[in-house]
Specification:
single chain, 41% helix, 5-stranded mixed sheet, 9 helices, alpha/beta
Length: 275
């Protein structure tokens, strides 16, 4: 798979352990970030950072909006601002605090009318990325704890079991669904609206989220089924590239292309790193 143009999808950041698993032949990998997002470890030479067109860049004050919203969510007892934003229908309901609605209104007054929706796209990807990275930090910490012996090992009777037993029922976000599919769909749409124009037919998409990988597989099949009134399954191939195991799908051309996600995926390849 030499000279392949790979885009991280639909993530805007990547945990270091997954970055280290990407085959060298995929580099430089493209990571797309909404405006004002920190680059952190992605500053490496083997990573190409892409931002949306400057015409859809939120005005100054965007980060203030994000922080105000997160503070409000916390004050309301909402554990995660990312999920709260969907409960609030992207901050458009009447329950949304007036000062936050005022911030949004002020931002939108500074952009063209046809660019207003891009502010929501930026909000979604900023909060989704923060949630995703926090979740993987938790997963990593739990895995490290599982490797260690119990604190009372060799002291108390029955303490010979490792911490792996104690955490056996804790879900791993790399293997278990943690996001509602409707939320996944909004994240994907936001990414496509901001970065879809960068991806051509010769590009491949790379994810480290199995839930998302199989969600898109089934969703695309459903779209094809509706078009041709017949069951159509897209085969998943497993291959090893430089000792990295990948799941791979090649999406066919659908008959109906009105759907944003299906139209974007049409004719493209999606790969998933197996943790």
């Amino acid at each position: 798979m030499k000279n392949i143009n790979v885009f991280l999808f639909p993530h805007s950041s990547i945990p270091k352990d997954f970055l280290d698993k990407i085959p060298s032949s995929f580099f430089p990998i493209n990571i797309c970030k909404p405006w004002y997002m920190d680059m952190n470890l992605e500053k490496a030479e083997r990573v190409n950072i892409l931002f949306p067109d400057k015409t859809v860049k939120p005005p100054e004050g965007f980060l203030k909006l994000i922080e105000e919203y997160k503070r409000w969510a916390q004050e309301q007892g909402r554990e995660n601002a990312f999920f709260a934003i969907f409960q609030q229908r992207f901050l458009s309901q009447e329950e949304t605090p007036r000062h936050i609605k005022t911030l949004i209104k002020g931002l939108k007054e500074e952009v063209d009318k046809d660019k207003e929706d891009f502010i929501n796209c930026h909000i979604i990807l900023h909060l989704a990325t923060e949630f995703e990275m926090s979740q993987y930090d938790i997963d990593h910490a739990l895995k490290e704890m599982q490797k260690k012996d119990a604190p009372l090992l060799g002291i108390a009777e029955g303490a010979s079991q490792s911490l792996e037993f104690l955490f056996k029922d804790v879900p791993d976000s790399t293997e278990n669904p943690i996001l509602d599919e409707s939320i996944l769909e909004e994240i994907i749409k936001a990414w496509i609206r901001l970065f879809g124009s960068y991806v051509d037919k010769n590009s491949a998409l790379l994810t480290f989220n199995k839930q998302l990988f199989y969600f898109l597989k089934s969703r695309f099949e459903e779209g094809i089924t509706e078009s041709i009134i017949a069951k159509s399954e897209i085969p998943v191939k497993e291959e090893t590239v430089e000792k990295t195991k990948l799941l791979k799908i090649s999406f066919p051309e659908p008959i109906k292309r009105q759907d944003l996600i299906n139209s974007f995926l049409s004719g493209k390849t999606l790969m998933c790193i197996i943790a």
